[in-house]
From TrEMBL:
Span of domain Peptidase C1A papain C-terminal: 120-341
An MF annotation (GO) of this entry: cysteine-type peptidase activity
Keyword Membrane (UniProt): no
Swiss-Prot/TrEMBL GO biological process terms: proteolysis
Signal peptide: 1-23
Keywords tagged on the record: Signal
Family per similarity comment: Belongs to the peptidase C1 family.
Protein's UniProt keywords contain Transcription: no
Name under which the protein is recorded: Uncharacterized protein
Domain Cathepsin propeptide inhibitor: 35-92
InterPro entries: Papain-like_cys_pep_sf, Pept_his_AS, Peptidase_C1A, Peptidase_C1A_C, Peptidase_C1A_papain-like, Prot_inhib_I29
Domain of life: Eukaryota
Length: 350
């Protein structure tokens, strides 16, 4: 956070210097990085002039929005430039989201929760105990639901065995059509429970290192070196609007897949506690899945927040993570919360 603020100050000072030098009338807006620098930084190749101009216009607009937003006095988070700055929301949804609730709400009937009220909320951060693998990047494929579910399985496995396994999203992707008979191109979206069901039936997943990620749906499911430690047996699905219940299950059972509705300001998030309910409305169609890994209270603002791991690489947000305000059903986070388990019919608390 402090490093970010330092850079922000440096950037603002630099932009003021540029502004004085070139006489731009807008004191806040200036090109912090040029479009060509941006393309180079994110290794974006553009093949024709029309596309170049289109991307450049969008990039400049995004940069202006980011600077104007960061100048607001009462914000609890900052926006920044990342790999999405040149794209429209529709383009980003197609390439980097990937939740479609084909099976929802016809999920397995879950056992009813029995303990209430279940627990006292307390800060938890599963990344601190080593239960969360490095941030991954789904790339140009709408398969967030696979990344979210595999990440949850990696964490559940660590919590059970104290061993870190970086598991194969590619294997889950390739086996999905064949084994679950879901007629679906995995780059076109799905829901995390597909993956839980698949891993239950396959008795685990192989390592990413033995079955590496390519992002192409090969639709063949070879016999592979399944890591038996990763053989989950079931999962819970929380249908609750009580966000304390969600935190209690996070504390008790570890990281969980969460379906969200993501809109434009989420994409520009670069740090702090995201809370734009006007943009990230809970009543809209869920389109993305992420991994809830933590909960805490900000000492300065007293805001309660969740910590989520995303699958857009470390250039998104806070090194790939986003903190989101708790208690306002931000982005519809209560809609579909799922947690893998090594018990066949786990019972949620709350
Ligand atoms: C900031 O928030 C405080 C408390 O909600 C409010 O009194 C103040 O007017 C706000 N300032 C601006 C500039 O919006
Ligand atoms: C878990 O693993 C870590 C490092 O691999 C070790 O320091 C720790 O003692 C282990 N804990 C348990 C309960 O085995
Ligand atoms: C998974 O495998 C891919 C392909 O080899 C590699 O690029 C990526 O870094 C691996 N992910 C992790 C977290 O190790
Ligand atoms: C996204 O947010 C904008 C405002 O930021 C809003 O106008 C729009 O309705 C929201 N929903 C969708 C689906 O884009």
């Amino acid at each position: 956070m402090e490093v970010f603020e330092y850079f922000l100050i440096v950037i603002l000072i630099n932009s003021l210097i540029i502004q004085i030098c070139d006489g731009d009338k807008n004191p806040i807006f200036n090109n912090l990085i040029t479009f060509d620098e941006y393309l180079a930084k994110y290794q974006i190749s553009v093949h024709d002039q029309a596309t170049y101009l289109k991307y450049k216009a969008k990039f400049l607009q995004t940069q202006k929005e980011v600077i104007n937003f960061n100048a607001k006095p009462n914000r609890t988070y900052t926006q920044g430039i990342n790999q999405f700055a040149h794209l429209t929301l529709a383009e980003i949804i197609k390439s980097s989201f990937g939740l479609s609730l084909l099976r929802y709400p016809i999920l397995n009937v879950q056992p009813k929760a029995i303990i209430k009220p279940p627990c006292v909320l307390k800060p938890i951060d599963w990344t601190k105990s080593g239960a969360v693998t490095p941030v991954k990047k789904q790339g140009n494929c709408g398969n967030c639901f696979i990344f979210s579910a595999v990440a949850a399985i990696e964490s559940a496995t660590y919590i059970k065995t104290n061993k870190t396994y970086v598991l194969s999203e590619q294997y889950a992707m390739d086996c999905l059509d064949k084994d679950l008979k879901i007629n679906n191109n995995a780059c076109n979206g799905g829901q995390p429970d597909y993956i839980y069901d698949l891993v239950i039936s396959k008795k685990g997943l192989p390592l990413n290192s033995s079955y590496p990620y390519t992002g192409n749906d090969n639709k063949v499911c070879p016999v592979k070196n399944i890591v038996s430690d990763t053989a989950i047996k079931g999962y819970i699905t929380l249908f609750t609007d009580n966000e304390d219940t969600i935190v209690c299950n996070l504390i008790k059972g570890g990281p969980m897949s969460v379906a969200v509705f993501v809109n434009s300001t989420f994409l520009k998030y670069s740090g702090g506690i995201y809370n734009d309910v006007a943009s990230c409305k809970p009543d809209l169609v869920l389109n993305h899945a992420i991994l809830m890994v933590g909960y805490d209270i900000d000492p300065k603002t007293k805001l309660e927040y969740y910590i989520f791991k995303n699958s857009w690489g470390p250039t998104f947000g806070e090194n790939g993570y986003i903190r989101m305000q708790k208690g306002i059903n931000l982005c519809g986070i209560t809609s579909l919360v799922q947690q893998p388990s090594f018990i066949a019919n786990p019972i949620p608390i709350g």
